[in-house]
Structures are given as C-alpha cells and as structure tokens.
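quick one, two chains, predict together pls
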Amino acid sequence: MSALQIKKGSSKHSAYNLRPNFSDVSEKHTLAVIVDNEAGVLARVIGLFGARGYNIDSLTVAEIDHAGHRSRITICTTGTPQVIEQIKAQLGRIVPVHEVHDLTVEGAAVERELALIKVQGDGEKRVEALRLADIFRANVVDSTLESFVFEITGTPEKIDAFADLMRPLGLVEVARTGVAALSRGL
Amino acid sequence: MTRQMTGAKMVVQALKDQGVDVVFGYPGGAVLPIYDEIFQQNDIRHILVRHEQGAVHAAEGYARSTGKPGVALVTSGPGATNAVTGLTDALLDSIPIVVLTGQVPTFMIGSDAFQEADTVGITRSCTKHNWLVKETDALAATLHEAFHVATAGRPGPVLIDIPKDVQFATGAYTPPQKVSTSRYKPQLKGDMDAINELVAAMETAKKPIFYTGGGVINSGPAASQLLRELVEQTGFPITSTLMGLGAYPASGDKWLGMLGMHGLYEANMAMHDCDLMINIGARFDDRITGRIDAFSPNSKKVHIDIDPSSINKVIRVDIPIVGDVAHVLEDILKVWKARGRKTNKEGLAKWWGKINEWQKVDCLKFTQSGKTIKPQYALQRLEALTKSHDRYICTEVGQHQMWAAQYLGFDDPNRWMTSGGLGTMGYGFPSSIGVQMAHPESLVINVAGEASWLMNMQEMGTAVQFRLPVKQFILNNERLGMVRQWQELLHGERYSHSWSEALPDFVKLAEAFGAKGIYCDNPDDLDDAIMEMINYDGPVIFDCLVEKHENCFPMIPSGEPHNKMLLGDASTKDAIGNTGAVLV
C-alpha cells in the first residue's frame, strides 16, 4: 500500500480511493494526529476509541506549535486493516483534527519512548543493575544508598527488555511516557 | 463592520445574519438574557415548546422540510439534558440543527451550581461538534462557525454552550464573512478516475440497481433532479432507504419501492441478485443489509458518500467515491453522455423482466374486510384523499412508520420526516410542528401510533397556542405494535408489557387542549372522517382504531439475507433462528 495521508479539503486522489486488500490479521499502527489545541479535543479522540471499541496501546499528547495552537497526538493502536482504515477515517471526521498520518504505512519512522525505572537493591544486584544500565545507555537520575532511578529512552521493545532485566534485580516502579514518533527523512 | 454589543444581543444578531426566521425553545435561568433580547425584536419568531426534546425534534422537522438548519434554544442543566435525544436523532440521520444552551456563569462552572450540567461533555458524542464559549469576544465567530459546521459536508447537529456572564458581558460582534474562512471544508468533487470506472461498469452491467439514501436529499434539490435524469436516461431500476424517500418519485416507472427489513419484495430481491449496486448517499445500515456475509453476493458495489468514514465501514465496496451527491452525479452524467450514453440494453430488458415477475408477487396486498379497520387500509385511504394536497408527512416509530413508508407515495424530496437511524418514538409530533412552522399553508400530517404519540403529547399545547393546524393521524391498536410483532415471532407469543391498559380518550384529550378530536373505528366512516380532519382549520387528533394484531410485512427476519423475506403470517412459523433472536 502506498503512503496513506488523510488531509481534509484535498480535492482529488483522496486516500480513500485506495483499495487495500483487507485481511483479518491484527496489525500494530502508530498514528500521528495533528489537532487544534482546544478544550475537549483529547476527550473527542479518546471518546471515539471508547465509543467504537477501538484499542489504544499508548497515547501521548502535547502542544507542538504554541502560536498556531496545534497539538500532536501520537496513538499506538492494534486492529485489522479494515479497523485501522475506519479509525483513520473516523479521526478525520473530528472537526478540530487537521491531519491524520499513519506512520506505519507512510514509510520508515522513528519511534521513541522515555521511561523512568526505580530499582531497589544492594550488593551484587546493585552493581549488576548499574552494569546493565550502562549497556542499555540508561542514565541514573536519582540515587540513594538502596535505590536508583534510571532514565531510559528507546523503542517500546527496548524499554520492555530493560524492565524485564531489572525485575529480578529489584524493580519497584515504572513510569513510561508512551510513544512519540516522526517519519524519517523529508 | 464590527460592533460592540452584549453576548445575548450577539446571539439574536447572529441568528438574523444567518437567515434564521424561527427558533424553538424553552426559557430558564441561564438563558434569560437571550430571552430578553428575543422579546425586544420581531424578526425571529420564537415557538415555545412544552419540553426541550420537542424543541429539538421541531428544529429537525423544520430542517428536513426546508433544507435549512433548524435552531433550538434551551436552558442549562435539565434543558440541555432533555435535548440529548433530539441531538442523537439528528446525528444519526445527518440533520443540520444548531442548539444553543445556557450555562451557569463561567466563575461557577465546576461548582455543582444550580442547574449546572457538563453540557459539552454530555453532548460530545451526540453532536457533530460542540463549543463552550467562555469569552464574549469569541461568541460571534463561534456562532457563525456553528452554522457552517452543521450544514457543510455531512450535515449534523451542533451545540453552543453559553455561560450567563458571557451573555451579559459586552464584546465585539462581526457579521458572517461572505467567503467562509473556516478550516472545515469537506471534499465535494468525486475522484474522476473512480467516476470513469463507475461509468464503464454502468455500460456493461446486466443487472444494475441504484440504491439511494438520505444523502441525496441532504445534498439539495439539484441532487434529486440529477438523480431523476440519470435514472430516466439509463433506465436502471431504483430503490431507496427509509431516509431517501421522495428523491426519486414514487410514481416513477423505474421505482421499486423502499428496500430493507420492511422493504418491498421486488426491491430486496433486486438488491440480492444485482450485478452492479450503485449506492448513492446511503450507508449500508443494518436495517438494509440484513446478514452481512450474504448481502448481495454477486455484485460489484459502488459507494458515493460525502463522509469518508462511511466507506468500507460495514460493506466492502469495489468503487468508493467520496464527494457530494449532486457534484458526483453531475460528473457521472457528463462522463456517461460523453462516452456515448451506452447501457447493456439486452441485459437490462431481461433484468426488468425478472423484476416484473417479482412485482407480480404484490407483496403489499391485504384484504380489508369486516368491521375493523386494517392499518394498511387507513393509510391507503389517507394516501388517496391527501395525495393531491401540498402535503408533508411525519411519522413516529414502529409499525405505523413502516406502513406509512410502504403505502404513502412521495414524489418530491423534503416531504417525508421520520426518525430512521435512532428510531425515536416521540419524534413525529414535535417534528410536525417544526414542519408546519416552515410551511404554514401546507397540509402537515403526523402518522403515529398511540404509544409513540403519547411520548411527546405535551406538544398539543404548542400546536394550539401557535395555531398550527397539524393533523395527528393515530393508528391506534392499543399495543406497542412492533414490539408485539417481535414477541409473537421471536419470544413465544409472550406479550411482555407491550400494551397499555390505560389509554386516554383521544377525543377528550384533544378537547382538553382546545383542539379537535375525531374518532373512527368503522371502515365505512373512514373517508368522511379523514375529509373532516383535512378540512378542519386547526390541530386535530384523529384516533383511528385499527386491527390490534396486524403484523407488518414483508419482513426480512434478523440474521437473514434479502432473499429470505417473510411475506405474510403463514410463512412466519419458526422463521427466526436463535442467532437472529439476539439481533435487534
């Protein structure tokens, strides 16, 4: 399937005229949704997923253009190709939504997530945690005599892997931001 | 052009500038400043309803019968929550309405103040868009944008929540711009490659059918004209959903009648057997498709819709065309003519031969005998006696609604107001008030069941106060007829709570409100009684006592495809399987 980009007001060759060959296999997609930064816009997006029974695996949102009142919502979702198409079309109907990008099909994209991970321990376990943190290029951002807080950035899979390794070494708490993503190149 | 005025004055000014001539509403504490402004002007008429749900349905009736957005004005809290059913109804049927709600002052929002409700939160999922306006300076632009969003693209309901301090405060008012500055601009023109592909399919199709819906009517009168031209020139048969009746005339010779769960045999059989289905402004609703995996199995499917999310939502289509119906039809005609006006004449002749055989089944036949009025007969007589009038028909929801769709004919768009998607009992009566306001000289009839009608009967006060001569034609079977029918077919004839043992005397009820009541239970008196209703200059409640256990046929049972229709009582035994029973 070629690049699928939903822009309102485009006059011809709409993305909807693509005819994807739908299958019943679920896929993970990362969507970037550019919205007006106005009251209730996040509730509209989340409400859509709730009302129509779509999945949200992760969601991040922040203002990206203060002067233009724009926010970017990054949603990781799972569904069959038909459901993914519906999600994009339904997002496109929301009045304050400007653009919907499916980063999974629009060519290569960079996906990053940040996590803070608290580990408790002493002796050999403490040393091992530090050694692994070094391998994963995680930074120590807080330290006491019996604990560390690591800051790690990477793909969700990398963070999963790091958290799994920390579990036997005394994992206490995890805070994750959800995925931020951009397409590669121009 | 910018002028300083209070928020309340801005509301009235914006309505005037948007061409609004009537507002349906109900006052309350949080909208008093706006009511004060309404009091001091004569350009906009205000119709005082008896319940906020009535205001929204009346605005819907006004909108459906004129093509212009309807406007309702209600107070905060209960005023807003009472409007929710009407908003949802308008959302599902794509009806453009603008609802203005009062709100507690901005500094009290969130304090659980008297008559405070989270109106934009509650109505977020039942409006196309909504706004809470917190600054008077933003009010004018929001009001104009609301009218644009309600009417542009796929129409729908919008709501503006206006706190009382914003109504009192003074700000800058700007009139609507000649050229819309809104960022919301849905695509109108269809993709030409897809249109070419469709025309090529039309040229060779042996068994084509047009399946049209409310989108044709929403697109405006030009769309109906273009549709008629396309049908006449190609000679293809045409059927329509409940929402699309009137776009193509019922008296036209290519007309197969309504399709769907209670649609005509020939229409559903043709949908099932066709090889090219051209969906124009309909949305493959479950009342239309029946069982999805057996829906029209051998056809190439084309879908013309202004809303991209309608495409492939329910039925996977081969040629999707996103655009406004009138724009797309114009291009189809242009391309089809330029390519030589070709159709598969031989295939079409055979196709019509098959359709004529289905038509011979005469699926709407019934026998009126004895001393009890059959509901079908009542509608047949109503049709015969009102057909020549400048007539608008509203309905409530249930058996009578389906019979009205089957037995009344509509030759023009915007003449048929019914609650299709949401199926709102209580829609018809207030809707008829909105229609009558828009068309004061016309004959406006609400075909009702007694149970639906009672849901918004308080609006008799509105009809009498504003001298709106709406005719309430109640097919009274003393039952919730459609519920009773499903209980008979699906639930072992256990009629759980589907009748009323305490119905009012409708004639006395009419008189209590200062209207006219007519009672008829004898087929021999029916014509005279209907004529008396038509000729009476004022609102009428017509209590037509009909056969209590009549079922509505044809019927596609839940979970069955189009070619498994039930045609009459004899075929109903065990017709609906266990899987069908869980569907609605």
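Chain B touches chain A through 30 residues (CB under 8 Å).
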